[in-house]
Amino acid sequence: MLLPVAFCLALSAASCWILLRALIPKLSRRLLDQPNARSSHRQPTPRGGGLAFVVVSAGSSLLAFVWAANTFPALPQSLLPLAALPLGTIGLLDDRLNLPASWRYGAQLLTASLILWLSPISLPWQMLPLVIVFLGAVFAGLVLQAPSWQEAMGLLLVATPLLGDACLCVPRRLLAGQRVFQAHRLHLFQRLHQAGWPHARVSTLYIAATAVLALALLWGGLPWLITLAAFQLLLGIWLDQRVAVPFAIASRS
Questions:
Q1: Over its length of 253 residues, how does the chain's per-residue pLDDT go in tens digits?
Q2: Is residue 123 classed as helix, strand or coil in its secondary structure?
Q3: Pseudo-torsion of CA 176, 181, 182, 183, nearest 10°?
């Protein structure tokens, strides 16, 4: 099991790097993002680079299923690799046309609903569309397909750096009376950048933190994963309080 995962991870990283190197010059000529009040960049920057990650994600997932067909037996093998495609398509259109937020959220909900609808799980969710709405993302659908609660928890905890950031940021914005669906610059990674950290350092921190959790899940099991996830949450709180631009100050900028 570890060999296919390691191979797909290495191949995905190399493929993303190659595709980005090929895409960025073209995007620089055709799809530039002009800085605005919430931008983290000060110069026009290419948009649409996420297309590389969508293509590689779909391709590597398909390769993983071909190599290890029993990895996710509860989910149709042809469904998971294609799950990112509608989201990637709406994201690319948003980069080009600045689509309303409702369109983007709608695409996420439709994709998650499709995965749940086609899955063989015997729950009456097909009769409860409001329940499906609250799932809100493809990731939630995939987690719910895990054969056991331990595997579901593992999938969630691997995403601790980003999920923890969002789970702390959204309530703080609600308590501050802000509109949570409005664009902002209040995530921890954004406030670290505002504090002077370069993009590369912030990205490396989040990538390394996620990689450590993934390796802990593969080699150490759930106890190690829970321990490291808790440590990362404490580290995030320390960075929030001691390093990043304070939430209140960033809210006024």
A1: 566 666 767 888 888 889 989 988 888 888 887 776 666 667 778 888 888 888 887 777 777 666 655 555 545 544 555 666 788 888 888 888 888 878 888 888 887 777 666 655 554 444 444 444 444 444 455 444 555 566 767 878 898 999 999 999 999 999 999 988 787 899 999 999 999 999 999 999 999 999 999 889 888 888 999 999 999 999 999 999 999 999 999 988 7
A2: coil
A3: 110
Question: What is the pTM assigned to this prediction?
Answer: 0.70
What is the 3-state secondary structure of 136-199? CCHHHHHHHCCCCHHHHHHHHHHCHHHHHHHHHHHHHHHHCCCCCCCCCCCCHHHHHHHCCCCH
- Give 66-73 contacts, CB < 8 A, sequence gap 24+: 67/4, 67/7, 67/8, 68/1, 68/4, 71/1, 72/142, 72/145, 73/147
Type of residue at 76: P
DSSP sequence for 213-234 = HHHIIIIIHHHHHHHHHHHHHH
